[in-house]
Design a protein that fits this description.
- By secondary structure, the chain is of the alpha/beta class.
- It folds into 2 domains: about 10-140, Response regulator (Rossmann fold, 3-Layer(aba) Sandwich); about 150-215, Orthogonal Bundle (Arc Repressor Mutant, subunit A).
- About 50% of the residues lie in helices and about 15% in strands.
Length: about 220
């Protein structure tokens, strides 16, 4: 990461005070980072952000009372699109990951991660504008990092395949996508399987990540 002599400012929103405090201590121990504010929920976080200097990175717990991570991420991304939002969760299901990325998160980190990966996540969202933990990648998108790096960058997609990928990044079911594209569910299944093979991924979230990383769909 390029050092500018200025600390990267971080905000944390998590209703579990012990975890939040532990995260703050860890991050404050990383060279070049400083936790400037903490909050119990999204509503409190937004109030503090509006009253202070804007942070560079916001760590947002997906499950919080009053205003959860989904609502908070959506509001922050709309109001301050330059913010780097890193979602925190104990969940690793496809629906949660797809939804939080679609709402504006730049990264997704499981709460049981270690200090090294936390540092890697912070660096990555600052330098590359995106981060997905190795655990989530390995669990949901088998071989995504290796396969994409070697083979997928040479994949040639037609316009229908790109359109399908864009719809896949929504919360629509495959049946709904078929209706939007004026195709049969069977044809949509064929598109999905063909892209699984072509892009070397094995789940819907793998398709979503490929689409985001390659500029086919916007965050």
């Amino acid at each position: 990461m390029i050092k500018t002599g200025k600390n990267i400012q971080v905000a944390i929103a998590d209703d579990h005070s012990l975890l939040r405090n532990a995260l703050a201590r860890l991050i404050n121990g990383f060279e070049g980072y400083n936790v400037m504010m903490e909050a119990d929920n999204g509503r409190e976080l937004i109030a503090k952000i509006q009253q202070n200097v804007l942070p560079d990175i916001v760590l947002v717990d997906v499950n919080m009372p009053e205003m959860d991570g989904f609502e908070t991420t959506q509001w922050l991304h709309k109001k301050y699109p330059q913010l780097k939002i890193l979602a925190l969760s104990m969940l690793s299901d496809e629906r949660t990951i797809i939804k939080i990325f679609r709402l504006g998160a730049k990264g997704y980190l499981l709460k049981n991660t270690d200090a090294e990966e936390l540092k890697k996540a912070l660096d990555s969202v600052m330098d590359k504008n995106v981060y997905l933990s190795e655990y989530v990648s390995g669990k949901l998108v088998s071989g995504l990092h290796n396969d994409v790096a070697m083979d997928v960058k040479e994949a040639v997609l037609n316009e229908k395949e790109k359109e399908f990928l864009r719809w896949t990044c929504s919360e629509l079911s495959y049946k709904d996508i078929a209706e939007k594209m004026y195709l049969s569910p069977r044809t949509i299944d064929d598109y999905r399987q063909a892209l699984f093979n072509k892009l070397k991924v094995h789940s819907r979230v793998g398709l979503v990540i490929y689409a985001i990383k390659n500029g086919i769909a916007e965050l």
